[in-house]
Design brief:
433 residues, mainly beta, 12-stranded mixed beta sheet, 4-stranded antiparallel beta sheet
Length: 433
């Protein structure tokens, strides 16, 4: 009995000795707990960043509603090496998050200054260790229902959705589970924006957290026109609240709502409303909590019929040059890469090789036509990053379709103009008659 009294007295004394810092920690922890159980993540801003800078400011005064904290995400780039994140609120208060935040492509920080009540944010000041190249940083706000209904005058208003567009169309959207097929549980190695081995184009890939998240996957007119898209999910099940495709002319279609996709599966192709240039794909989703952690979602497009054909629309853009395929060039030896060509009707009269991110040594190009005929183009030259080799006139029959292209090349290890330390991206383009 005496021992219990002594232990109880020690516990009381320990609680009384709690410092102000301890109390602040537990208040912070309580708010973090509240955030995890009820709030949503909203994309406030997305900005291209020069990674050689040591500091920069992101103006977010146009963001709608009040926020209970933020997260930052590396949406594109080798590495964000952040030392400080400063949040400047509209009431004049400032929060300094002085800690190291290292984020590789697709990674995001834990919550920064999670609070119980939402506040309006004017700007985000970032300090970082200077690096190389460019990246894209997203500011993601933590927002509850009350925060969404507040304007900057502090008044409540009707709920609004900043992502809706005047010409958004939702009729025909799939509601409920999407038909799926099993897929190999390995991430697609193709660079986003480039055709895959099967000829489909990988628009982008994202990691999905347990909470409601929102990502914007940018496509762009230069990739081509598309007729269908599909999703591929790895590592964990996900629930899609909404999937929206925004076209280049500003119109958009909501293709799926409240759909569950199991891990290691891919959906069937989902038809778009006609053949379209896609500006971006908007996804609101979450992964199912499990011991395995986050899910990975990949988004693909299928070229519009005839886009790669001699009479297709592809020849009307970029002086008739269309992107046939792309691969990453290794550093050791001469890789012999096979670049499959998407469904095409032939009619290519010449090809060219374009290099991104790092210089390569190009050794040989071989074109294999659909009937098995081969055409070898011996080379032996350096192609700088951002440069092009060609055009190369093809000698095959005029309307012969191309099955695939084999190329031998390697990334040059010593290249002072390289963007980061990664390998080169080698693109093969074709031009119709």
């Amino acid at each position: 009995m005496l021992r219990r009294l002594v232990l109880g007295l020690c516990a009381v004394l320990a609680m009384g000795a709690m410092t102000a810092a301890d109390a602040q920690y537990w208040r912070h922890h309580r708010h973090h707990y509240h955030y995890r159980h009820g709030d949503e993540l909203i994309l406030i801003s997305e900005q291209d960043v020069d990674l050689s800078l040591d500091r920069y400011t992101i103006d977010v005064r146009q963001a709608k509603g009040a926020y209970k904290g933020i997260r930052v995400k590396n949406a594109m780039g080798k590495l964000f090496d952040i030392r400080r994140v400063q949040i400047v609120y509209s009431d004049g208060s400032v929060w300094n998050e002085d800690r190291q935040i290292d984020m590789y492509w697709g990674e995001r920080s834990r919550p920064i200054n999670p609070t119980y009540d939402g506040k309006f944010i004017d700007q985000i000041n970032i300090e970082q260790t200077p690096g190389y190249g460019r990246g894209r940083l997203q500011i993601i706000g933590i927002q509850d229902r009350e925060g969404r209904e507040m304007d900057r005058a502090g008044r409540s208003g009707p709920p609004s959705d900043r992502y809706d567009r005047d010409r958004d169309r939702t009729e025909g959207a799939v509601s409920g589970d999407l038909p799926v097929r099993p897929t190999v549980p390995v991430a697609t190695p193709t660079t986003p924006g480039q055709p895959t081995a099967g000829g489909d184009v990988l628009f982008g890939a994202q990691s999905v957290g347990f909470l409601t998240d929102r990502d914007v996957i940018r496509v762009g007119n230069e990739v081509g026109k598309f007729a269908k898209i599909r999703l591929r999910v790895l590592e964990n099940d996900i629930h899609i609240n909404e999937m929206k495709v925004v076209y280049a002319n500003g119109e958009s279609d909501t293709l799926a709502v409240n759909a569950d996709i199991p891990k290691n599966s891919r959906t069937n192709w989902i038809d778009l409303r006609g053949d379209r240039f896609i500006k971006e794909i908007q996804l609101v989703y979450r992964s199912r909590p499990s011991f395995n952690g986050q899910a990975r979602i990949e988004v693909f497009g299928q070229y519009a019929p005839g886009w790669l054909g001699p009479n297709g629309e592809g020849r009307k853009y970029n002086q008739g040059w269309v992107l046939l395929g792309a691969q990453t060039a290794g550093f050791i030896g001469f890789d012999k890469d096979i670049i499959p060509i998407g469904s095409n009707e032939g009619g290519f009269r010449r090809i060219r090789v374009t290099v991104r991110d790092r210089a390569i040594t190009l050794n040989e190009i071989k074109v294999i036509y659909a009937d098995g005929e081969e055409e070898t183009i011996p080379v032996r030259t350096r192609v700088d990053a951002g440069g092009t080799f060609g055009p190369i006139e093809l000698k095959g029959r005029r309307r012969q379709a191309i099955d695939h292209i084999e190329a031998k090349y390697r990334s040059r290890f010593f290249d002072s103009s390289a963007k980061g330390k990664g390998s080169a991206i080698v693109e093969i383009w074709g031009q119709h008659y």
